[in-house]
Structures are given as C-alpha cells and as structure tokens.
Write a structure and sequence with these properties.
Layout: H1 8-20, H2 23-30, H3 34-48, E1 53-56, E2 59-62, H4 64-79, H5 81-84, E3 97-101, H6 104-121, E4 126-130, H7 136-142, E5 147-150, E6 160-167, E7 169-173, H8 188-192, E8 196-201, E9 206-207, H9 208-213, E10 222-226, H10 233-237, E11 242-246, H11 247-257, E12 260-263, E13 271-277, H12 285-301
Parallel strand pairs: 3-4, 3-5, 8-10, 8-11
Antiparallel strand pairs: 1-2, 5-13, 6-13, 7-11, 7-12, 8-9
Helix pairs in contact: 1-2, 1-3, 1-4, 2-3, 6-12
Length: 302
C-alpha cells in the first residue's frame, strides 16, 4: 500500500487503529462513528490482505505485518499532518477530539476553567483526558496525544512548552491538627515529624514533593501513596497525616472537604506548570487555538 494509491483519511484511520488497537478508541479519537471505522478496517484488510488486528484473550492485538507498519505509517502521517489537519480559522466549525495528558491537578486548574469557553467557541470539539505515562512524550510525537499539562521539567530538545503559571506548595491536614496554626510556612523539622500522604504521577511513580526535597526526601515518612489527591479526604480527616499539594489545588481541596492548610516549608520549591506540545503540532492552527485558550483561561482563573 502506498500513500498515492489510498485515500488520505483511510491512512489516517490506519495509523490510529495501529496505535489504539481498538475500533471504539479510533472512532472516539477521530470523531467518527464505530460503523465508519469498522468499514475502514474492513477496507484496509482487503487492500493489505491481512487482518491487521486479531482478537485474543488479552484483547485486540496487531498481526506481525501490522507491527511492521506502525513506524512507517506514523512517519508518513507526521510528514503529511498538515494535509490531514487543515488550518482552523473558525473554531465554531472545528470538529475534532483533542487528547490531553494531565493529572487531576491539571484538570482542576487548567482544563476546568477553560472547558466552558472552549465548548462555547467550538461546540463540536471534545476533550479526552488521559493519564500520565512513561511514554507520553513519544505519544506526543506520534500524535496519539495532542498536549501535555505538566509540572515536570520539559526536555526542550524534544517538545515545545509554554508556562501557564507558577504555584507554591501548601500542606493539607485535618482542621484540628497540631500543625494547622499559625499561617506561617512549616519548618522542615515539624514537616518531617508527621506522617504523609504521597501523591505519585501515574506509572511514572514521580512524587513531586520528594523531587523538590532532594536528598532530604528520605526523612519524610510516607504512610500512603495515591495517584490522585481527591481520594485523600477520608485518610486525612481521621488521622494525623498531612498531604502536600500545589497551593491552587490545596486551597480548593481544603475548602471542599473542611480541611486546614498551611504553607509548606520554603525548601519545597515552586511548581512551574506548563503546556507541552510537539513540533508536529507547532503549525496546526487548531492545536494552537486550544493551547492559547487553555493558557488564557487558567491565568484569569488563578
């Protein structure tokens, strides 16, 4: 199969099918119906004389030939993405599903403030939030995701980035916790004297607080680790544990659950929250519009 012999949209469907190994996932990603994607898969199977995806006990898996096609098809798709994603000058006519990798903090501080303005300007746009993963930079390069919202230090040789805001850290605890007063930053000795809830970033297993504490992180006694902080209220309310979050999240979180906050030790440096995208999207007007909307709305909500 060669690009000149096959419809561009069919090749785009093939690229996503090879990534997701799912008709449903491909339909959602491309904003198509499942029957449409099923028909495309049937046509691709006919053209290539290969089943491409086969059902197994572990779910749909690629055939050997499909495995061999992943890289060349994706390379072709990347080089011709401008043809498949024409410039978006009118958001109200944009019909597209954007996939954004972020944590629940990113949803709270970046996605939530922008969602209403996005849907008002572009009613047919959908946003799929996906969790962080160790290979999310590769997924950005392949087009499997469109943007990453992250406080992790970006590799500027691999991605473009835009600073969204800088946030301090605060500790969250039960209202009558001995550390709840006064409103000055905790000293490290007091911080280390109490048990902690650690927040880790998906399968990256990155705890941002440990990263910022450096060599002193071994002094922090972590009693429980969670991949998202909204599961923590029951753990905090009935215990001496404290949880350290970016202040924007800590303030809203504490207010929602009747908890107390106190500034974290000054040794825990600030969080530079950023929006990341790949060179393949640098001239995609739809992605640029979305990035600008996210940046504007989360700045005004701060």
């Amino acid at each position: 199969m060669y690009p000149g012999h096959v419809d561009l949209n069919l090749l785009a469907t093939l690229a996503v099918l090879l990534q997701t190994k799912s008709v449903t996932g491909t339909a959602r990603r491309l904003g198509l119906s499942q029957p449409t994607v099923s028909r495309s898969l049937a046509e691709l199977r006919r053209i290539l004389n290969d089943p491409l995806l086969i059902r197994t006990s572990a779910g749909m898996q690629r055939t050997s030939r499909a495995d061999d096609m992943v890289e060349p098809v994706q390379r072709w798709l990347t080089s011709t993405s401008a043809l498949l994603n024409p410039p978006c000058q009118e958001p109200e006519r944009l019909d597209r599903c954007f996939r954004i990798a972020c944590t629940d903090y990113g949803v709270l501080t970046v996605i939530a403030p922008a969602l209403a303005p996005i849907t008002a300007a572009a009613p047919q746009v959908t946003i799929d939030i996906v969790p962080f993963s160790a290979d999310m930079t590769q997924k950005l390069a392949s087009g499997e995701i469109d943007l990453i919202v992250s406080g992790l230090k970006p590799d500027h040789a691999v991605v473009h980035s835009r600073s969204l805001f800088v946030d301090s850290y605060s500790c969250v605890m039960r209202g009558d916790h001995p550390l709840a007063e006064p409103e000055t930053p905790l000293l490290l000795d007091a911080f280390f004297a109490w048990p902690h809830i650690g927040i880790v970033v998906s399968d990256l297993a990155v705890d941002g607080v440990e990263v910022r504490l450096g060599t002193r992180s071994v002094e922090r006694r972590v009693t429980a680790r969670l991949p998202y902080f909204h599961a923590a209220p029951a753990l905090i309310a009935e215990s001496d544990m404290i949880m350290t979050l970016p202040t924007r999240a800590a303030t809203r979180f504490a207010k929602s659950y009747g908890l107390a906050t106190r500034p974290a030790p000054v040794e825990i440096d600030c969080l530079d929250y950023r929006l990341l995208w790949h060179e393949r999207s640098a001239r995609d007007q739809a992605t640029i519009w979305l990035a600008e909307t996210l940046a504007r709305e989360c700045a005004s909500a701060g």
